[in-house]
Amino acid sequence: ANLPPDPGAAGKVTLAGIDSDNDGVRDDVQRWIVMNYPNSEKTRAALTQDAKAMQQFLLDAADPAKSYANALQLDRSLDCYYYINPAIANNVSAKLKATVLNTYLRSKAWLQADQHLSGKFFSEAQDEKQGCDFDPDLMAN
Known about the structure:
mainly alpha
């Protein structure tokens, strides 16, 4: 896979980090996805979808309406994981979240966005596959 360069310490200076290929996923996160899940195209696709939702959750942390909309996207991503491999869904998402929240500023933004979700309701997915922004059935692994 073509990986962006390692952003190093410069990638931790701002909330947005560095996304040199402008795909919505920070370079450090994109590298982590490929290096940790090289043998599963489906898992990489689900992680990429989730990483985009997590990044947007951080960037919109000050806006209650956007925080809720982004939380719905995070929920969809988890549904997608459950469709692909329910045995590892929570574990994979938790590992990605730990990678995304690799600075104090990012953790603080997550908590700010999360506070906007108090009292909000989320419905259960009827079809977990619909949570995927891609068709996992078309991928070999």
